[in-house]
UniProtKB/TrEMBL annotation:
Entries under PANTHER family matching the protein: METALLOPEPTIDASE M28 FAMILY MEMBER, PEPTIDASE M28 DOMAIN-CONTAINING PROTEIN
Name of this protein: Zn-dependent amino-or carboxypeptidase, M28 family
Pfam families according to UniProt: Peptidase_M28 (PF04389)
Superkingdom as given in the UniProt entry: Bacteria
Length: 503
């Protein structure tokens, strides 16, 4: 197994230097007292949000992909902003950081695939859909349909056929539609073929798959990620290759043959949560925490779209990263009765890895976390629209927390709320795709603020120039006002006794 490259270790060293700095004290000219019972929304500055947003989502940050020095550089930047805002370090060992190991598994660069002795080019006209050791030298049998499997013995042979459209198709307008189309088609078709005891399966891309294949191919090339120490994902079925339609004629030739020698590399990289704290003002409540949650990573450098290969992640999730900085600064200037805990999670885009790690290794007593206010993408779409996930069953796990958020919106920000994305039947499953989820599964009251998806989601067009700064400011104030209500209420919000997620 290979360890982190030297550039990443250098990034850790620079971050360690930042850890040694002490937090800045509250601004001397603050006119807000600790006895205030209302949130001071004027402490959330649109100009500061804009400045931080354009810095964090600039091309210089290179998309902040988890497991790279770019993510660590972004984490160091976030920690420095937290320090400058006066927040205390609340990570491991008196620092702002909580490092955790993530394991990446990918196909080796020297792997080879050939049809009829002619080499294919990995990640150009052939893709390994799941990293696995593959050594195949076997004849190819072309199938015109799945019905052909009943007419011949395919054991030990390579099955090849065109990728078939999944049933049902992904919902019209669903995010990453082509990726979901390919993923569903692969799953359904390989499930139908897995009992044939074939040596390998080759599926040929159809026109739908090829219409927007850059992102899909990049996902396959990157491989898989998981927390180090988790049980490896075992794939005992025949290996599956996806090939471009231009390869189909070779597969249909008489006596066609596949020769594939594919190896796997595993790497362990550091990722980091950034954790900071603003102490509360009430002696009896300051040991309890209102946790504000977001993630600071994104997709890094990827497939080129319209000449741009940097997936900046301005909305996803720089908007929330800078929002938490602003809320933290406000909490320092006007402390709530309970302490504010701010966790910028790493490696969310690789499978909620940072939040999963923090729930299992909290830097404060887990029982001291009274509520989690998470956000993901809070700066796009219609100016007055938003959503609060976790507000209706089966996703609601604390009616009291939801009521606080709804009351804060009604009193201060007055967004029109879309509840449809919180329904269990919504095709996006958006509730299950952000960092509140591990906390909710741990039984902690949790809600999820968002302004929902848009066509630039997970593309290089998710840039700061398209963010509605006024809306971002209002969403930040809504989160702040909700957290303030949680902080000022003597009774901590209770979990609903019958709360149970559908999956």
């Amino acid at each position: 197994m290979k360890k982190a490259p030297l550039l990443i270790l250098a990034g850790i060293a620079s971050m360690a230097a930042a850890c040694t700095q002490t937090p800045v004290t509250s601004p001397a000219n603050s006119t807000v007292t600790a006895e205030a019972t209302q949130p001071n929304l004027s402490l959330i500055s649109a100009d500061e949000l804009r400045e931080d947003l354009f810095t964090l989502s600039s091309d210089e940050m290179r998309g902040k992909r988890a497991g790279t020095e770019d993510e660590l550089r972004a984490a160091a930047w976030v920690a420095e902003q937290a320090r400058a805002a006066g927040l205390e370090p609340a990570g491991d060992d008196g620092t702002y950081f909580q490092f955790f190991p993530i394991k990446r598994t990918k196909v080796t660069d020297n792997s080879t695939v050939a049809i009829n002795g002619k080499p294919l080019i990995l990640w150009k006209n052939t893709w390994v859909t799941s990293p696995a050791e593959i050594n195949v030298n076997a004849p190819v049998v072309w199938l015109n349909s799945l019905a052909d499997t009943a007419r011949q013995n395919l054991q030990g042979k390579v099955v090849a056929m065109t990728l078939q459209a999944p049933s049902p198709l992904p919902a019209q307008g669903m995010s990453l539609w082509n990726y979901r189309y390919v993923a569903s088609a692969l799953r359904q078709q390989t499930n139908a073929l897995k009992n044939q005891k074939a040596a390998a399966i080759i599926l040929v891309t159809d026109k739908e798959a090829e219409s927007d294949f850059g992102f899909i191919g990049h996902v396959f090339e990157e491989g898989t990620y998981q927390l180090e120490g988790e049980a490896a994902r075992q794939n005992t079925n025949a290996p599956v290759l996806l090939v471009h339609s231009s390869v189909a004629p070779a597969l249909k030739q008489k006596n066609a043959k596949l020769k594939a020698d594919i190896g796997v590399d595993s790497f362990v990289y550091p990722s980091a949560n950034v954790v900071a704290r603003a102490p509360g003002s009430d002696p009896s409540l300051k040991d309890e925490h209102v946790l504000f949650s977001g993630h600071h990573d994104h997709d890094g450098i990827g497939a080129v779209v319209d000449g741009d290969s940097i997936y900046n992640g301005a909305d996803d999730n720089a908007t929330v990263t800078v929002a938490l900085i602003a809320i933290g600064k406000a909490w320092v200037q006007q402390p709530g009765k309970r302490s504010g805990l701010f966790v910028w999670h790493g490696a969310e885009e690789r499978g909620l890895l940072g939040s999963r790690w923090y729930v299992e290794h909290p830097t404060v007593p887990k029982e001291s976390i009274v509520a989690v206010l998470n956000a993901d993408m809070i700066g796009r779409n219609a100016p007055d629209s938003a959503a609060l996930l976790g507000s209706i069953p089966p996703h609601r796990n604390s009616t009291e927390l939801v009521d606080m958020a709804l009351n804060a919106n009604q009193e201060f920000t007055k967004f029109s709320l879309d509840t449809s994305w919180d329904e269990a039947s919504h095709p996006e499953g958006w509730y299950f795709r952000s960092d509140h989820l591990p906390y909710a599964r741990a039984g902690i009251p949790a809600i999820f603020f968002t302004t929902l998806l848009h066509p630039d989601y997970h593309t290089p067009r998710d840039e700061a120039e398209f963010i509605d700064i006024e809306k971002l400011t209002r969403m930040t104030r809504w989160m702040y006002a909700t957290g303030w209500a949680v902080s000022e209420t003597m009774k901590r919000p209770a979990t609903d006794p019958d709360a149970k997620l559908e999956r």
